[in-house]
Design brief:
CATH superfamily: Luciferase-like domain
Number of domains: 1
Helix content: 25-40%
Number of helices: 10
Largest sheet: 8 strands, parallel, barrel
CATH architecture: Alpha-Beta Barrel
Distance between the termini: 18 Å
CATH topology: TIM Barrel
Strand order of the largest sheet: 1-2-3-4-5-6-8-12
């Protein structure tokens, strides 16, 4: 049994052609989308995070609001760029949002993708240490984040505090038990998937990954998932890991669907998301339901994963149309 959720980019545009024209529209519609998805039986509401862009850049207020408005659906990110994050402050925000949601957060974190500005993390006050890359810095921030989520005390208490302290070293508050097991790493390579498995993070794999063999995305992704699970097993973690993959899937069931999405079907292609790194980009599935079923059965990565995230374009008001029609 697979879990099925949506992954929203949360994009807005002041264009008169858009039904999501402001940051307020994007945030409020995201909450409405999650509520509607829960009512329709979806398992997860996930959101992209990008800085310096007309998208959802600050996830925790949104996650907390969705958590307060829903009761069952998983709430997550895919992904938070750890190059920009203070891992201790992030742990406080994450703990608070998870408590508001009753322990339903599923936080996807990663090195992140190319951003809107050059080295945008520098404006947030972060610099890689000497000999480090920005990717190294992201993984270092992630390791600190994971450590403080264990809830163990590490800070020396003030002997004359404003409020009485519990005995021993102090941890960050609020602490949400179990959140450490609900952190996912968005991996673009087999090596980072194995690193995530070793550290006990779940795995998120997107609609693209860096090319490591020339095969279609779903084959490379399936190999990545198997490498992740092998690393997890070798590390000896007690619980079973989770794996999600993202796909662009459009079921064409009437003339409106065909007008909007009928020309969206495509095949995998290769290109450069970074100047020196060739990536494989997954196809878009757009077909009649019976054809879609046959196509998706042949997707090896979907077969390997336990969670499927459907990417949702929001800039044209598509989410409102689909949810209101009851055909998510």
């Amino acid at each position: 049994m697979k879990k099925i959720g949506f992954l929203s980019f949360g994009h807005w545009s002041p264009s008169s052609q858009s039904q999501t024209r402001s940051a307020s529209d994007a945030l409020l519609q995201s909450i409405e989308l999650a509520v509607a998805a829960e009512e329709l039986g979806a398992d997860g509401a996930y959101f992209r995070v990008h800085h310096f862009a007309r998208q959802l850049g600050s996830p925790f207020p949104l996650l907390a609001a969705v958590g307060a408005k829903t009761s069952r659906i998983e709430i997550g990110t895919a992904v938070i760029d750890m190059r920009y994050e203070n891992p201790l402050y992030m742990a406080e925000d994450a703990g608070a949002a998870d408590l508001i949601a009753g322990g339903r957060l599923q936080l996807g974190i990663s090195r992140g993708s190319p951003e809107q500005v050059i080295d945008g993390w520098r404006y947030f006050g972060y610099e890689p240490q000497e000999g480090q890359s920005d990717a190294d810095m992201a993984r270092s921030h992630a390791e600190v984040f994971l450590e403080v989520l264990r809830g163990e005390g590490f800070a020396q208490p003030n002997p004359r505090p404003m409020f009485p302290n519990p005995p021993g070293m102090l941890r960050l508050e609020p602490f949400s038990a179990g959140l450490r097991d609900r952190i996912w790493w968005g991996a673009a390579t087999n090596a980072t998937a194995q690193w995530a498995g070793k550290l006990g993070m779940n795995l998120q794999s997107s609609t693209l990954k860096f090319d490591e063999g020339g095969q279609p995305l779903h084959i490379q992704q399936a190999e990545q998932i198997r490498a992740f699970r092998a690393a997890w097993k070798e590390a000896g973690h007690a619980r079973e890991p989770r794996v999600s993959v993202s796909r662009s899937i459009f079921a064409l069931v009437n003339d409106r669907d065909r007008a909007y999405f009928g020309s969206n079907g495509s095949e995998d292609h290769f290109g450069y998301i970074e100047p020196d790194k060739l990536a494989v980009f997954g196809r878009t599935y757009a077909a009649e339901p019976d054809v879609l079923i046959d196509q998706l059965r042949e997707d090896e990565a979907i077969a390997e994963a336990d969670t499927l995230l459907l990417t949702v374009p929001t800039s044209s008001g598509w989410t409102t149309m689909r949810m209101s029609s009851g055909r998510y």
